[in-house]
């Protein structure tokens, strides 16, 4: 199994690279900045930077080009804006080699509840203050191969550069995700 990791608005970071290497298999990291390291500020300034350099539609289009060319069984693990872009792109491209999407806090999917996923998806949300997450989950629950979870952690809990980072949450989800911990 190959993995594609789709970054959040912070792009490719040392932390994301380390996370991907733990899977001990062929992988690709996709980010909105073509692999260029970004001068990290705070979450709000980073979001403004993401919107000026790439934006949500640009990120989805970038993934379309990559996902169209996948030729081996692949799982996509994506974060935040990358998760929402992957959600849209997987449905648009409909490549049978993409076997699963695991997306962490892909909040922008709330604007794309009409998207029908051709593959199993696990969407891991956080409790958000600025929209009703339960409305989003209800909208997605009509699709049988979509599994939604709401954690007690904050948006960004998997990324130490985010103000929402939570070490315990990160460790818990790593134990859950890493193949050596899940032989099936």
Reading side by side through the largest sheet, how are the strands ordered?
A: 2-1-3-4-5-6
CATH first level: Alpha Beta
| CATH-derived architecture | 3-Layer(aba) Sandwich
- CATH superfamily membership, which one? Alpha/Beta hydrolase fold, catalytic domain
Question: Using DSSP, what is the number of strands?
Answer: 6
Q: Looking at CATH, which topology would you report?
A: Rossmann fold
Largest sheet: 6 strands, parallel
Give average pLDDT, whole number: 93
Intertermini distance? 13 Å
* Integer-rounded radius of gyration: 15 Å
The SSE string, one letter per element, is: EHEHHEHEEHEH
Number of domains: 1
Strand-residue proportion = 15-25%
List the helices and strands and how they pair.
Blueprint: E1 2-6, H1 14-21, E2 27-30, H2 43-53, H3 55-67, E3 74-79, H4 81-93, E4 98-104, E5 121-126, H5 133-140, E6 146-151, H6 167-177
Parallel strand pairs: 1-2, 1-3, 3-4, 4-5, 5-6
Helix pairs in contact: 3-4
Structure description:
With 184 residues, the protein is α/β, with parallel strands linked by helices. It has a single domain, classed as Alpha/Beta hydrolase fold, catalytic domain (Rossmann fold, 3-Layer(aba) Sandwich). 35% of the residues lie in helices and 18% in strands. It is built from six helices and six strands. It has helices at 14-21, 43-53, 55-67, 81-93, 133-140, 167-177; strands at residues 2-6, 27-30, 74-79, 98-104, 121-126, 146-151. Helix 4 (81-93) links the parallel strand 3 (74-79) and strand 4. Helix 3 (55-67) crosses helix 4. The protein is globular.
